[in-house]
Design brief:
InterPro entries: Glyco_hydro/deAcase_b/a-brl, NODB_dom. This is Polysaccharide deacetylase. It comes from Streptomyces tremellae. The chain is α/β, with parallel strands linked by helices and about 290 residues long. It has a single domain, classed as TIM Barrel, CATH 3.20.20.370. Helices cover about 45% and strands about 10% of the residues. It contains eleven helices and nine strands. The strands form two sheets. Strands 1, 2, 3, 8 and 9 form a five-stranded parallel beta sheet that branches. Strands 4-5-7-6 form a four-stranded mixed beta sheet, sandwiched between helices. Bound molecules: zinc ion. Zinc ion binds next to loops.
Length: about 290
């Protein structure tokens, strides 16, 4: 089945280029009860909306690739001009919480309220209501899916249960993978990480291998990047080379997550899955 996924235009495999444009919002959420007295990581993360996103937009413009940007509402509120520039450049805006709250940390009513507020703001900035969501830190709950469906979203992009688009209830899932998340390579805040950040050539080589594997198996590569990490000039330059290579292959469909979700909804025949969590009375093998 994997070699037979019906990629748009008869392509052999798929590539989505996505950015979690979250700046300092993850730190603000994580330290909400204990605000940091140190400006170091805040400023490191503010590089994303301040500078990194512009290097990224330049990279995408040079390659002609349209991407999906998952934007917390707080970021859209605080860096409104940068978010408007992302939209004006032809990229998709999608939801990523109000201030990077993982669904499992919120009651369903709180999740609904934060996403409604974020959706209203992104729609006000772009004139387009977001169709998709990515959960902060790839942490998702079954109740979160119910809220996404209630809000009328068409897709989620948070989970790793397949390497092609699939369905969870009424939503299309555009799957992610830690191996194609730049944070695994680049995230380094001087806060006790066990290893220094990998260089841009290491990520370039690793992601070339991901593209080769996908082209062999007919699967999706969903690149997940953060402007405060991948927006540094040497990294943006390697990303440009990777995207140029991906285009030169000629057999990769390249588009936004929203476009792929719409395609899957129109063409796929897979049955809707569920997101049951195991419990000690049902399915937990202990
Ligand atoms: Zn994030």
């Amino acid at each position: 089945m994997s070699a037979g996924y019906p990629w748009p235009g008869g392509h052999r495999a798929g590539l989505c280029v996505t950015f979690d444009f979250d700046g300092e919002s993850p730190l603000l959420w994580r330290r909400r009860d204990d605000p940091p007295g140190d400006a170091a990581e805040l400023e490191q993360r503010r590089y994303g909306p301040r500078r990194g996103v512009h290097h990224i937009l330049d990279t995408l413009d040079r390659t002609g690739v349209r991407a999906t940007f998952y934007v917390p509402g707080w970021i859209a509120h605080t860096y409104r001009r940068a978010v408007a520039e992302v939209h004006a450049a032809g990229h998709e805006l999608a939801l990523h919480g109000w201030c990077h709250e993982p669904p499992a940390d919120l009651a369903p009513d709180e999740l609904r309220a934060t996403l409604t507020r974020a959706s209203d703001l992104l729609a006000e900035i772009s004139g387009v209501r977001p169709a998709g969501y990515r959960s902060p830190s790839f942490r998702m709950s079954p109740e979160g899916f119910e809220v996404l469906a209630e809000l009328g979203l068409s897709y989620d992009s948070s989970l790793m249960g397949d390497d092609r688009p699939y369905r969870i209830g009424d939503l299309v899932e555009i799957p992610v993978d830690w191996a194609t998340d730049d944070a695994v390579y680049y995230r380094y805040t001087g806060g006790g990480e066990s290893h220094p950040p990998y260089g841009a050539p290491s990520l370039y080589d690793a992601w070339h291998a991901e593209l080769a594997g996908a082209r062999e198996a007919g699967t999706l590569v969903d690149l997940t990047m953060h402007p405060w990490q991948s927006g540094r000039p040497a990294r943006a330059l390697r990303l440009r080379q990777l995207l140029d290579d991906a285009k030169d292959f000629g057999d990769l469909w390249i588009g936004t997550a929203g476009e792929l979700a719409a395609h899957h909804r129109d063409t796929a025949t897979d049955a809707p899955g569920t997101l049951d969590l195991p419990t000690r009375t049902l399915g937990w093998p202990l």
